[in-house]
UniProtKB/TrEMBL annotation:
Protein name per Swiss-Prot or TrEMBL: LPXTG cell wall anchor domain-containing protein
Keyword field contains Magnesium: no
Keyword terms, alphabetized: Membrane, Signal, Transmembrane, Transmembrane helix
InterPro entries assigned: TIMP-like_OB-fold
Signal peptide (from-to): 1-24
Record field: transmembrane: 159-178
């Protein structure tokens, strides 16, 4: 009986000693270009001109600023900001500044406020890797509205609230200092 108990304890210890590595995000199979076009809110090609990491709801995300060259669906501005995760287990797509991409994006609040979002399970990839998608998408259109976006200017409210709070603390400190000096 003691041998059986020792064997069971040793077995449990050994099983727990070799954990299996797993990712939090995995994709079964990429959809076809036609399916992805249908389910996406925006489809465009463009060059990444800026990538900014920011913390949202306790998690790190990326805001990726694109100079849009062609559009097929849901986009008529010359620039667009796409939100994604950092990559890996959070499903984020890894963009590289200066690269051209064909982007399939959806309106989502997955990474904070509702915005155009793409993840590694979407068909988004470098333009060269998806050139065959153009057979399904067609020629595309040039954006009609000129836009000057900057991911740096997005969500600047906390910055201004911080400045206002600091000024309020300084004003209160000065008020109490002056009041104490008079007495």
């Amino acid at each position: 009986m003691k041998k059986l108990l020792a064997f069971m304890v040793l077995s449990l210890f050994l099983i727990g000693s070799f954990p299996v590595v797993s990712n939090a995000c995995s994709c079964a199979e990429l959809p076809t270009a036609a399916d992805e076009l249908e389910r996406s809110d925006a489809v465009f090609s463009g060059k990444v001109i800026e990538i900014k990491e920011e913390k949202v709801k306790g998690y790190m995300t990326k805001k990726v600023l694109f100079e849009v060259t062609n559009t097929w669906k849901g986009m008529d501005e010359s620039q667009a900001i796409i939100t994604t995760g950092l990559g890996g287990g959070d499903c984020g797509f890894r963009f590289i500044e200066g690269q051209e991409y064909l982007v399939y994006a959806k309106e989502s609040d997955m990474y904070g406020a509702k915005s155009l979002t793409t993840i590694m399970c979407d068909r988004t990839n470098t333009f060269r890797a998806l050139e065959n998608d153009l057979e399904v998408l067609g020629a595309g259109e040039t954006p009609t509205k000129k836009a000057e976006l900057s991911s740096s200017n997005q969500n600047s409210t906390p910055f201004y609230l911080g400045i206002a709070g600091a000024l309020a603390v300084i004003a209160l400190a000065a008020f109490f200092f002056m009041k104490r000096k008079k007495t």
